[in-house]
Design a protein that fits this description.
The chain is α+β, with helices and mostly antiparallel strands. The chain has 5 helices and 6 strands; from the N terminus they run αβββββαβααα. It is elongated.
Length: 145
Amino acid sequence: MTRSNSAVADLYARGETEGRSGNMIIEGDTVYSYGTHFPIAKHLKGKIYLFNSDSYSMSTSNHMNLVRRALLRNKAILIFIKNCDTDYALENMKYNKELLHKLHSKYANARSERKREEYKNAIRELEKQNKLLHNFVPDILAKKI
């Protein structure tokens, strides 16, 4: 009997290291869509997961939504990073820092309270992502920052 994609997402969120549906596969710390060429999420430690920031197809996007919802129901912390690959962490942090600079400037020049609040929330989220990247990416990468 084949499991549903939703059931596989729930298994992964509960910490299972093996499982599959017709289109999703759990192998070790990673859950994939349509084979090992497209990781959806990779467990780092505790409740911390790398989550793929790329997209591929409508059906893969659906798999990603199932996994994201299952992980968030289990109070996971998601770090969005290209291809769930820590090699992109430094690139993500640099991009986030550049974006933070732009958002601070927009915040300072915002004319409405609504816009200021919008920029403030975006700044908080990017700062949170950078802190997570810095704290939970392997030590070797953290030394490059």
